[in-house]
Amino acid sequence: MHQDFLIDGPADAAVTILLAHGAGAPMDSTSMNSATAALAAEGFRVARFEFGYMAARRSSDSRKPPPKAEKLIPEYMAAVAKLSANGTLIIGGKSMGGRVASMVADDLLSQGAIAGLLSLGYPFHPPGKPENLRTQHLAELRTPALICQGTRDEFGTREEVATYALSGNIGILWLEDGDHDLKPRKKLSGFSASDHLKTMAAAVKAWSVETVRKA
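Now predict its structure.
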């Protein structure tokens, strides 16, 4: 069902983060590679996997669009079951991958399988369709969660997200002028993509320590 895991970071890390990719790019995209490197540098073990439709693109000319997020839930659950995580497990992903993780998080939390949820650019709505919200399940989320979001993300800007009803268990790290890949425009913001990724990884580290302590 899955490609093998790509695993980075120390094998004996206290916390493993399982990440799924976004709808249009694979697990080893530039964005995923950069975010993984930043998290591994903070001492996390980071495991990445691909949903079947994306893995199929590697061996064929298939450009089949991704299934609806709900259809990917069994694949995410299978990845969690397959991954041997020593210590604490946090699940998440980029964009759609984080959305699918958010749909399974509470079930896994109740089983004691995970400690938290990490989303790198949550797709609150499709670009240009702010009325099509993907937030209903987030209002009652019980899993401790951290969403890292660029302030100008076309899937949910800071101004838009401020109006949503989100669970008190969700924290949001806003990265100034970041887009859906958390990249800022350096001339306008004064920040580089590397700056934001370091900030993201340091925030995930601090959040994870607090989350694990409360677990």
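The first helix runs from residue 30 to 41.
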